[in-house]
Design goal:
The structure is a single chain. The protein has about 425 residues and is of the alpha/beta class. The protein is built from 16 helices and 13 strands. The strands form three sheets. It has a six-stranded mixed β-sheet with strand order 3-2-1-4-5-13, with helices on both faces. Strand 4, helix 10 and strand 5 form a beta-alpha-beta unit. The longest helix has 19 residues. The radius of gyration is 22 Å and the shape is globular. The structure holds uracil.
């Protein structure tokens, strides 16, 4: 059977739902070996998948594990980001929409490669429990409308196994495979409304708007086909989002935005994401939704909601201000406008300061990271401070500082860039 399925996909023919189920079930229970699954994944990468194939793959990966039952709540909303550098939006938009009556039952991931992960950011808060029993998870959502935890074990196990194989067979970068991988986990997470932040640019999986739009379109179709009201927003990841990169540093910055302060780029993206989440969940217009979002920011309600969440999950918020042992200022050796900042290499710099993991076993230095003092569009003179690097593990910054400087491009002309590049789906 698997041999015939491989032949069919190699020849560009459409697989049936039963054939896809056969593959997913038998790969997950180890009956199909890695070499045959790798061949199929490569054929999918090359020949693509029809919408029906994508829907079937998503469904069978979702069905391979448990589904979170949120049917006791009427207004559930989830949010997903395809991953970026400095992306702490979940910490901000979750509390905002929770203040507006949305139920946020959020399961998040850890850092992947050069991109950060919400769970690691939360664990930079001393005592914060990212694992709750199902009972406590539901009860907290009932009480304060929000709980943020790590993904439970048995969510889409087929995707977990297939993703690990894709990672070592050069088959990650396939729109049907990425779309079904993300959506199988989102569908299993149980929310009825979903906003996906599709990052576009140097620090994202999707390097250009065309491929990001294709991915967004597939995910919105899968979501809607599964009865989840889904909207995707394309946002700029050519530049890190906000000024702080690194776990505790990002929580500090999230608190600033929740307190209705800057930085403006992070605030703008959060307002758009939160407004769409609120609009589709509470069935109100986008403009009305923006007003409500601004109100909970301006009145301190969203800020207090975050503190309440941290306290209920056992965290001590003061601990995020722990001083790193070492710091280093990177000076500009050029003058002119900053024309580009390679978000991927800046993410890697942050990782090598200790903010990420090189291997799964590595321990994160929660104090490590970067504070950007200047960003794309700013004019700098030679000797101006571009960024401050922090670490409690590394005190020889020469090499790392050089890598940071190499990720900045200068120009004599002020560059222009947009933060929100498009919306796919109905608001
Ligand atoms: N994130 C996922 O969860 N899956 C992919 O395939 C890519 C990014």
């Amino acid at each position: 059977m698997i041999y015939d399925i491989l032949e069919k996909k190699k020849n560009g023919l459409e697989l049936t739902s039963d054939e896809i189920k056969y593959v997913v079930d038998n790969y997950t229970n180890n009956s199909i070996p890695d070499y045959q699954m790798s061949a199929l994944l490569m054929a999918i990468c090359i020949n693509g998948m029809t919408d029906n194939e994508i829907f079937s793959l998503t469904k069978h990966m979702t069905d391979s594990g448990n589904k979170m039952d949120l049917s006791m709540f009427e207004k559930t909303v989830d949010k997903h980001s395809t991953g970026g550098v400095g992306d702490k939006t979940t910490l901000i938009v979750g509390p905002i929409v929770a203040c507006l009556g949305c139920k946020v039952a959020k399961m998040s991931g850890r850092a992947l490669g050069y991109t950060g992960g919400t769970v690691d950011k939360l664990e930079s808060i001393d005592g914060f429990k990212v694992k709750l029993s199902q009972e406590d998870f539901i009860s907290q959502i009932n009480n304060i409308n929000i709980a943020l935890i790590s993904q439970t074990e048995n969510i889409a196990p087929a995707d977990k196994k297939i993703y690990a194989l894709r990672d070592v067979t050069a088959t990650v970068e396939s729109i049907p495979l990425i779309a079904s991988s993300i959506m199988s986990k989102k569908i299993a997470s149980g929310a009825k409304n979903l906003v996906i932040d599709v990052k576009v640019g140097s620090g994202a999986f999707m390097k250009n708007k065309e491929s990001a739009t294709l991915l967004a379109d597939k995910m919105v179709k899968i979501g809607n086909n599964s009865g989840i009201n889904t909207v995707a927003v394309l946002t700029n990841m050519d530049i890190p989002l906000g000024n702080n990169i690194g776990n505790a540093l990002e929580v500090q910055e999230a608190l600033k935005v929740l307190n209705n302060e800057g930085p403006n780029d992070l605030k703008e993206v959060c307002i758009v994401l939160a407004a769409i989440m609120n609009a589709i969940t509470n069935s109100i217009s986008y403009n009305e939704s923006v007003k409500q979002v601004m109100h909970v920011l301006e009145t301190g309600q969203a800020y207090n909601k975050f503190l309440e969440l941290v306290k209920l999950q056992g965290g001590n918020i003061e601990s995020i201000y722990k001083e790193p042992l070492y710091k280093y200022e990177v000076m500009a050796d050029n003058e002119g406008y900053i024309a580009s900042m390679n978000a991927e290499s800046i993410g890697k710099v942050s990782g090598s300061l200790g903010a990420g993991r090189m291997t799964k076993e590595d321990e994160i230095d929660y104090t490590a990271g970067i504070v950007l003092r200047r960003k794309t569009g700013d004019y700098v003179n030679k000797g101006d401070v571009l960024a401050t690097l922090y670490s409690s593990k590394i005190n020889n910054f020469e090499e790392i500082s050089k890598k940071f400087s190499e990720s900045i491009g200068f120009s004599s002309e002020k560059p222009d860039y947009k933060l929100i590049l498009g919306v796919v789906g109905k608001i």
